Amino acid sequence: MIDLTGRRAIVTGGAAGIGRATATLFAELGAQVVIADLDAEQGEHTAKEIGATFIRCDVASRADCEAVVAAAVELHGGVDVLFNNAGIIRRSTVCEITDADWDLVMAVNVRSVMVLSGLVIPLMAANGGGSIVNTGSGWGIKGGERAASYCASKGAVVNLTRAMAIDHGPQGIRVNCVCPGDTATGMLAEEARQLGASVDSFYSDAADRPLGRIGQPLDIARTVAFLASEAAAFVSGAVLAVDGAGTA
Asked: What is the CATH number for 21?
């Protein structure tokens, strides 16, 4: 049922982690994939490995986002699927975080969703519709300690998803949000470093949820592929936790 043959997709943060797993799965399911990421070395490697195209992109830059969409149009003639996945985290309270870090988290995690969606929606509408999937977080559904900017940004992504689904449903565009729990990625290891914790113990603690394990990038990628496909043709405005019942 999940078939992306001929779909033209952009995956931000696609060089590693959840983005890489999703770009790989998209390609395996028949999509033409453009990977956007700051990490040129890993991005080029991933793109070569899966038969995709890599475009270096700082999603906090509107000009870079415009360049990625332009490349997708030039290469593939349009965009049918956008996976807004790029994200960063700064573990701190509102008393600790700097204005610069707050603004950066909001620019990468929220503004990029607005900018890229705004660029691709007219293309999708002209082609009869499309699918946008945004990466939220369990901490976009509930709060977490020493992660004020991240929680705020992911909460914004969750409700932005709902607003876009309402606005653009009449154009045949479905907009959904996947909310991962702790997943074995470089970002989770970076959180441990920011908190001065052992990565191994951090991963062990993250497995303390009803399903008894930490998430894997492919767990999330499979859900994104479903939401991007016609198997989810009547799913829009959904906020789906993929977290081993962590938020339950």
From this structure: 3.40.50.720
Q: Taking the mean position of all CA atoms in its chain, how far away is CA 31?
A: 17
How is residue 139 written in tokens?
A: 């901490």
Assigned domain for 86 exists: yes
151 occurs within a structural domain: yes
Contact 131, 228 (CB under 8 A): yes
pLDDT tens series, the chain, 248 aa: 799 999 999 999 999 999 999 999 999 999 999 999 999 999 999 999 999 999 999 999 999 999 999 999 999 999 999 999 999 999 999 999 999 999 999 999 999 999 999 999 999 999 999 999 999 999 999 999 999 999 999 999 999 999 999 999 999 999 999 999 999 998 888 888 898 988 888 888 899 999 999 999 999 999 999 999 999 999 999 999 999 999 99
Instruction: Give the pairing type, strands 32-37 and 239-242.
Output: unpaired
Task: Please check whether residue 120 lies inside any domain of the structure.
Answer: yes
Please report whether residue 88 resides in a domain.
yes
The residues carrying an active-site annotation are 150
Q: Residue 46: which domain range?
A: 8-183+216-242
Q: 98 pairs with which residues across the strands?
A: none
Q: How many domains does the chain have?
A: 1
Query: What is the model's pTM?
Result: 0.97
